[in-house]
């Protein structure tokens, strides 16, 4: 019997928010717990976070200074139960 190995990939999440004080990432991969994924700000105002995720489909959003926002660099999204949009990534 063959065992199928689930591969993992490094994903770089980034968003430009030069005036933001706090940027976090929440999604299926961290049980929508924004406190578990802070992003780091570069000098040019781009916030980034690297995550290693297993193959699959994930929904996510950024939390920028307390305001939810979908990923403006990702055109793949769906409407969620709250009537707003979640970004979607497939690995």
In short:
This protein is mostly beta strands and 91 residues long. 0% of the residues lie in helices and 49% in strands.
Structure description:
It is a single chain. With 91 residues, the chain is mainly beta. It has a single domain, classed as Immunoglobulins (Immunoglobulin-like). It is built from no helices and eight strands. Strands 2, 5, 6, 7 and 8 form a five-stranded antiparallel β-sheet that branches. Strand 3 and strand 4 form a beta hairpin. The model has no long low-confidence stretch (mean pLDDT 93).
CATH fold-level assignment? Immunoglobulin-like
Structural class: mainly beta
As an assembly, this protein is: single chain
Radius of gyration: 14 Å
Low-pLDDT residue intervals, each spanning 5 or more residues: none
Count of domains: 1
Please describe the biggest sheet, giving its number of strands, its sense, and whether it closes into a barrel. 5 strands, antiparallel
CATH architecture grouping: Sandwich
Strand content: over 45%
The SSE string, one letter per element, is: EEEEEEEE
The backbone outline, from C-alpha atoms, is globular
| Distance linking N and C termini | 25 Å
Q: What is the helix fraction of residues, given as a range?
A: under 10%
- The name of the CATH superfamily reads Immunoglobulins
Number of strands: 8
């Amino acid at each position: 019997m063959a065992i199928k190995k689930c591969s993992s990939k490094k994903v770089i999440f980034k968003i430009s928010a030069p005036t933001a004080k706090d940027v976090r990432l929440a999604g299926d991969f961290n049980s929508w717990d924004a406190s578990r994924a802070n992003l780091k700000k570069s000098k040019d105002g781009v916030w980034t976070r690297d995550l290693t995720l297993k193959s699959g489909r994930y929904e996510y959003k950024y939390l920028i200074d307390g305001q939810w926002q979908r990923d403006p660099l990702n055109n793949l999204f769906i409407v969620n139960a709250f009537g707003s949009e979640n970004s979607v990534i497939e690995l």
